[in-house]
Amino acid sequence: MNSSTDPTFSELNASFTNTPDTLFATSVSSDPSHGFGEEDYACGTFNCSPKEFVAFVLGPQTLPLYKAVLITIIFGGIFITGVVGNLLVCIVIIRHSAMHTATNYYLFSLAVSDLLYLLFGLPTEVFLYWHQYPDLFGMPFCKIRAFISEACTYVSVFTIVAFSMERFLAICHPLHLYAMVGFKRAIRIITALWIVSFISAIPFGLLSDIQYLNYPLDHSRIEESAFCSMSPKIVNEIPVFEVSFCIFFVIPMILIILLYGRMGAKIRSRTNQKLGVQQGTNNRETRNSQMRKKTVIRMLAAVVITFFVCWFPFHLQRLIFLYAKNMDNYLDINEALFSIAGFAYYVSCTVNPIVYSVMSRRYRVAFRELLCGKAVGAYYNSGFARDHSSFRESSAYDRVHSVHVRASQHPNKFETDSSSANRVLIKKTYSLPLPKNADSTVLSTTDIVIVLENSHTVCEEPKVENDIWIENEETCI
Prior knowledge:
- The chain crosses the membrane at residues 73-93, 110-130, 146-166, 190-210, 238-258, 296-316, 336-356.
- The protein has 13 helices and 9 strands.
- It has helices spanning 38-41, 50-58, 65-95, 102-130, 138-172, 174-179, 183-200, 202-207, 232-237, 240-278, 283-323, 330-358, 361-372, and strands at 16-18, 23-25, 208-214, 221-230, 390-397, 403-407, 424-429, 443-451, 468-470.
- The radius of gyration is 28 Å and the shape is elongated.
- The model is unreliable at 1-42 and 376-477 (pLDDT under 50).
């Protein structure tokens, strides 16, 4: 949408801004005491027609063709990649029981929220570049779109934070995670964050409505100026944007930085300890370990940077509308920031499947299997299918040996009964060769192996009596 309002309209109680959700404007009312002349309205001394007045305040009804086409192509690419990527994540998690883990439940929640926002928000956003006003969808759609868009935004933020805390516990405090282990806990958390998000978005749905401009000469409402908006009077009286900025950006951003910073330090510390033990043994192994450590740290940094880049312009533009309308070059800054915020806002829905899912080898294999219509290799028959039954404390991305463990409560037999869940297994590590087909980008197992509660899983009896061979596999960090 275009921003073409003269700064002097702030004196007329006429101001507006554009956000990825709504266009804000106030009704214009004239006051003889203001003494505005021709330059103030740029359409004669109150002699402009209502149509000219609307065009002056809200900008052209349709953007220039080249700009509308370019934006449509860019947003169309974002829409296709975002919908396809998130759909693949959802289908893979639903189809494969091995993917029914607490971590993947968070990813599923994130994919669903991104899908909803892309479907409800992006098509309308593109349409507004071709037809900014009058609004053609009516008040019900205006309220529903504002409500769902805001709610899905909150769900995405909460899910990323919850997922980050899950990773933090897995890497830095595995014993605490064991005390809270279980799929039901993850489902309860996800359900709660969806409920809280939708409740938090209710004010945006209730306060959004079809707004109109008033013609300054006779104060009549200009029907052709209809647009979906939240009244600026309400925005000025109720700090909805400020609260949203603090709760759904500042606090999550601080938490994410602290959590991933701590995880990065833990990974670096464990890798350095392992390298100290390996000194003088295998230079190639040392180099590979260092490369894997850098890969993980870069990925952790990518999570923080992605969150900041995608969400900060959106909140910044809202704050500029509230507190900086009188600044120099406000209109140019607002228009540029609106384009950047809209692009980054929707790109986050496309980037999330890549950052949180596709970077995992497990997901890449599952995607190939889904697209090709057949299983790829023997990955599903090995460690892939066992991720839902065991959770291991992880350190750096290092090549590790298979771990030989024995159940402390059942020394003669490992549980084949599905009712034996949530038992700690005492680990004994042996220097066993790594299988040739094992993935090199795996996490090393350290002090504890935890069997997660899964009443529907029955572990097969291993060939070696009383023993379990936990194979190398990826753990999503």
